[in-house]
Write a structure and sequence with these properties.
Elements (H helix, E strand, L loop, with lengths): L2 H10 L10 H16 L3 H17 L13 E3 L4 E9 L9 E8 L6 E3 L4 E9 L11 H4 L2 E7 L5 E8 L6 E3 L6 E2 L4 E5 L3 E8 L3 E2 L6 E2 L5 E4 L2
Antiparallel strand pairs: 1-14, 2-3, 2-13, 3-11, 4-10, 5-6, 5-9, 6-7, 7-11, 8-10, 12-14
Helix pairs in contact: 2-3
């Protein structure tokens, strides 16, 4: 089986317009909306119906078109870039790297995507607190899931999904040793969160603090 075929299978499993993790929330709310309507509670059906529509919208899973360039690095998340810095190293990636932090608001698409193709070298989940995801200390203290990608040219890229004040569930569809492709969906964080990506120091970062980015679509840099 070719890598192209593998990519199609892996991607299509999570390509539905609404991610499957949303249905346990959507179905009960939809039933409650219908029941409220038939009960004749006109004043109650409006807020319940709006909440149902919001949850459906929150779990949306749009298609995305990759930007051109073999060495292009794409954003792993929708949101706003709140920090860019060079650091000496972190767990799973002890070598110096360039860190980009993306804050995902409630209105952003919460499906995360692979920023650059390679092989999943390691996945590490860490329990923690649920501080507001826009705080710098959330990176170290909050519940998080780290994914280390080893690229074909031998570099390592680390992506960390971080839970927030409201987000209480990190979802990751990956397994170690899996070959992944740029732009492929790999997980999500429910109801507001933060995603950080750590790039080799030799990589070029084109993103800037304050930029709005889209997962799998916005170019944030280039590999060396």
């Amino acid at each position: 089986m070719t890598d192209k075929r593998k990519q199609k299978i892996s991607t299509d499993r999570h390509a539905s317009i609404i991610v499957r993790e949303g249905w346990p929330f959507i179905f009960p709310l939809a039933i409650l909306t219908v029941a409220t309507f038939f009960a004749g509670n006109i004043y109650g059906v409006v807020p319940v119906g709006i909440l149902t529509l919001f949850v459906v919208w929150f779990f949306r899973n749009p298609e995305r078109s990759l930007p051109g360039g073999e060495k292009t690095i794409v954003s792993p998340a929708d949101g706003k870039i709140i920090n860019i810095e060079q650091i000496s190293g972190v767990d799973l990636l002890p070598s110096p790297s360039r860190k980009i932090s993306i804050f995902m608001n409630l209105h952003d698409v919460h499906v995360n995507r692979i920023p650059y193709g390679g092989t999943i070298r390691s996945i590490r989940y860490t329990k923690g607190k649920f501080l507001a995801a826009n705080l710098d200390k959330a990176s170290e203290l909050n519940e998080r899931n780290a994914v280390l990608i080893h690229t074909p040219s031998g570099e390592n890229i680390l992506v960390i999904q971080i839970a927030g004040l409201v987000a209480r569930r990190i979802v990751c569809w990956l397994t170690e040793s899996t070959v992944v492709h740029k732009g492929e969906r790999f997980g999500m964080i429910r109801f507001g969160s933060r995603v950080e990506i750590f790039l080799p120091v030799q990589a070029t970062v084109s993103a800037k603090i304050g930029d709005k980015v889209l997962a799998g679509k916005t170019k944030i840099g280039e590999m060396p």
